[in-house]
């Protein structure tokens, strides 16, 4: 049996053919079938996805596909992006590699995909080379995952969804208020450890912004919101009294914490910047 790399070279260099695309694509997501490779199972099909997020579904995988993930606008900052993929727990039938200039590096084995864990890598690490595992019966095999392009805070690990644990600087806090997927004021109710991450239960007295409905309203006259924010377990967060300003990103439907200063400390920084005219954006602190 040929190694993945030799099979790749044989497909691309010797056969020199790319299967015609027989799939549904909206530039954000792709759904295709390995049955289009029938009779030429060594074909390598090129897939191009140019959105910040989407999904891929490859039914009855045979041969291989190369998935090129790029933002829909080109800028110098694009080279700093990371790609995060979250396989479906039913995903099977393939191994997933990173392909950089013809060199393959294993990212996920077939059995790893069933864990459904998020895996991230730098966009400069290359495209995804997804190779079907040879088998007699492909009728129940589907490779499926969601993907998102992530713009990390400086110093963050490109292989992680989360921000680094060190406290944000004043400038980072002010910028986070403007650019985060969620901004809220509230209290920590509880902390629970989950595998290699921490889940923090929060109660919010003010919800300035949220990209998706990760926090839900409790109703009643004293309107409050509740929800969970995630962070790495090594951050060692503990329940604390007092109010915090929570900011962060929403990844695959979960809120990940970025900057979370105590609200009184944020208010001091915000008011100082307001007096100096250096606030990058406005937040209603009344």
UniProtKB/TrEMBL annotation:
GO terms for molecular function: hormone activity. Keywords: Disulfide bond, Hormone, Secreted, Signal. Residues 1-21 form the signal peptide. It comes from the Eukaryota. It is found in: Secreted. InterPro entries: Meteorin-like, TIMP-like_OB-fold. GO terms for cellular component: extracellular space. GO terms for biological process: energy homeostasis; positive regulation of brown fat cell differentiation. Belongs to the meteorin family. This is Meteorin-like protein.
């Amino acid at each position: 049996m040929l190694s993945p790399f030799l099979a790749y070279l044989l497909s691309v260099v010797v056969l020199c053919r790319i299967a015609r695309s027989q799939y549904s694509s909206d530039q954000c997501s792709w759904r295709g079938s390995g049955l289009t490779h029938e009779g030429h199972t060594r074909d390598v099909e090129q897939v191009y996805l140019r959105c910040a997020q989407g999904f891929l579904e490859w039914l009855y995988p045979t041969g291989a596909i190369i998935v090129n993930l790029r933002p829909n606008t080109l800028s110098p900052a694009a080279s700093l992006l990371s790609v995060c993929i979250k396989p479906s727990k039913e995903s099977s039938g393939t191994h997933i590699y990173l392909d950089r200039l013809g060199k393959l590096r294993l990212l996920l084995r077939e059995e790893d995909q069933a864990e459904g864990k998020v895996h991230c890598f730098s966009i400069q690490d290359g495209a995804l080379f997804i190779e079907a595992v040879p088998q007699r019966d492909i009728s129940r095999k589907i490779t499926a995952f969601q993907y998102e392009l992530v713009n990390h805070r400086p110093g963050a690990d490109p292989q992680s969804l989360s921000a680094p644990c060190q406290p944000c600087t004043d400038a980072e806090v002010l910028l986070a208020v403007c650019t985060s997927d969620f901004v809220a004021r509230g209290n920590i109710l509880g902390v629970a450890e989950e595998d290699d991450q921490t889940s923090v239960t929060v109660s919010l007295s003010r919800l300035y912004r949220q990209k998706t409905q990760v926090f839900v309203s409790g109703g009643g006259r004293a309107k409050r919101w509740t929800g969970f924010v995630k962070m790495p377990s090594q951050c060692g967060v503990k329940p604390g009294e007092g109010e915090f300003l929570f900011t962060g990103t929403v990844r695959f439907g979960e809120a990940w914490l970025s900057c979370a200063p105590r609200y009184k400390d944020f208010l001091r920084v915000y008011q100082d910047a307001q007096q100096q005219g250096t606030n990058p954006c406005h937040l209603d602190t009344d």
